[in-house]
Fold:
Amino acid sequence: MRPLVLAALALAVIPAVAQAQDSEVGGNVPSVLELALNDVSLGRLPASGDLTARVRVTSTTNRTALSAVDEDRGRSPIEARIGSSAFQPLDLSIDPLLAVFRRPVANERATIRLRRRSGARVPSSTTVLITVSPDGP
Amino acid sequence: MFRSLAVLGAALATAAVVAETASAAGGLSVSPSRLEATARSGASGTVTITNSSTRKLKVTVRARPWRQASSGTVAANRSRTLGSVRLSPSKFTLARGASRTVTVTLRRVPARRSLYGALDILGKPVKRRNGINVAYRLVSSLRFNPAAGKRKLRLSAGAAGSSNRTLTVKVKNRGNTVDPVGGTVSITGPGGGRSGGIRPVGVVPGKTVKLKLLSLSGMRKGRYTAAITLAQAGRNIVSVTRHFRIR
Structure:
């Protein structure tokens, strides 16, 4: 019991010491762009309803775009959106913008919803490329 | 009884930490996110691609030209590659936790004396299943800037128009840099005047974008004149006058 009390006291003292030694810490890091996907196999797309892809984006640049494109370059049977924005087809000549981060982000979460385009037939296996890119050249 | 509960509590706490760690696992990354070099034959640089996900990935790297929408948004053109850029290696497998350095070399300097494009990095899990699969795609920026004496800042302004109560003008980058295009605009007309700065937008050499100039909200109907000065790299490049009508 006594060691536990001592440990708790020690933990309570540490922040006070840290505050007392208030000093600025800085440094440089190389620019980086990272995409993390929670799951890579989402299963079959239901006839009505959607599938969700949970992603996290890390970027040191001030403007980063999150988009999704069909790996096959023909007409895509799938469309996507984030939040309550309109669904966008995945075969546009300019990748459909799902979100733009206007500041550097670290592990910024986003949930992409995918659904079947009206009347389209989805092949048994399809790959959607979740894309992070700069917003300008 | 108390001991069993303590053991159960500890197990649940450990499971929560493991779950948090798993969800916080990394993904596919590229560093630096923008590779810049002076456009000289043989100029090169490196990028490091790291797989910090929990999966083995097949990685493909391509150098592609940009496509640019009239809004200024860019996307790597997936149907083309930049023949004057060599990548080594361009295809490899990355085990989880592994990194690979890719060397990017400019084989020859284009006639424009600069080259801007995208490094299109695709990471696909080795195992593919039926149904919808998602894969990693990172697009980083590739800039082979013109040498100091070869820089050319040249812009041309096209027609002015308005969309969504915003005055726009078409601007073509006839130079060889991607220095953002900004400037100032001053509007005069029957409803009074309005002026302001133009939010800078990077325009790929040879491409045209619709630059947003000013909001027209609250302005009366009539014929107006806009005096537009376009600037790049801190220099005024072109000044034009455009007439437009608010209906």
